[in-house]
Amino acid sequence: MDLDLSPKLAKKVYGDDGGSYYAWCPDELPMLRQGNIGAAKLALEKNGFALPRYSDSSKVAYVLQGAGVAGIILPESEEKVIAIKKGDAIALPFGVITWWYNKEDTELVVLFMGDTSKGHKPGQFTDFFLTGANGIFTGFTTDFVKRAWDVDDDTATALIGNQKGKGIVKLEANFKMPEPKPDHRKGMALNCEEAPLDTDIKNAGNVVLLNTKNLPLVGQVGMGADLVRLEGNAMCSPGFSCDSALQVTYIVKGSGRLQVVGVDGKRVLETIVKAGNLLIVPRFFVVSKIADPDGLSWFSIITTPNPMFTHLAGSIGAWKAISPEVLEAAFKVPAETEKLFRSKRTNDAIFFPPPK
């Protein structure tokens, strides 16, 4: 199985002084097309406004940097206007309309990863804009717009032609946008940097899982997610998704070594990953990472709402459950070697601190 699994950076698709939209291309990262996964980033400058849109794919959004406001309109529901900040994860099911706005000096950067199996192009998101130079109003003739929205000629002409921007625009500094409502945030977003840790290993690392328990909307999206933070020189146990899920990983911060082992015990990837990289681990392939001295953090989506993993090392490693005699025969080693092997990593689960 010859697969190009090497991590890639996103490329700019469009944008102007209000900000830019970047995406990963399935021609450069073939696993996107094979796995029916899309990935993109939205970067908004101060007063940048991402025009209202909907997509052909369900997604999970993750705020990589900055703070801002998001408008989210679920089908047949009121608009939710929520404050967003670094670390926030937001589930965006099919049919949801969103807009994004940044009024702060710091650039607002939002990552999108999702399922394109029902989309127009495997491995790519297709957005449909409600307004702007490529919005739906520009495609209808004036008489259709007049009749559908019951407006006069001048109003129809304004709706069709006034907004010359495409996708992202910059608003005047004094323009008043809706203020976020605290009660709208409940059930819409979870801050992964502030949420209770699902696993926390001293001097090694921690993880927060995003699933139907802490953000029920991920059930509608059909994907779970996690934020993993690995301390400097610590290691993440070799493991695989045991429920046939793909794991799509974006490196949020830091750098480190990564190895992936696939069919027939073949190492299919050995590389250095760093912030901004995106990579996809195929189903059942085993992956492990070792952080560089400054640590390594990554955000992943997993193509099932409540993912399950099998770890091959550590106190909960699958080896611990196998009979000693079976291991002796399987490795073709004497009992002493098997006992030594089993005696290690009895306290560390999933993450391993740096060697002393």
UniProtKB/TrEMBL annotation:
This is Glutelin type-A 1-like. Residues 3-157, 195-339 form the Cupin type-1 domain. GO terms for biological process: seed maturation. GO terms for molecular function: nutrient reservoir activity. Belongs to the 11S seed storage protein (globulins) family. Keywords: Disulfide bond, Seed storage protein, Signal, Storage protein. Transmembrane segments: none annotated. PANTHER family: OS01G0976200 PROTEIN (PTHR31189:SF62), OS03G0336100 PROTEIN-RELATED (PTHR31189).
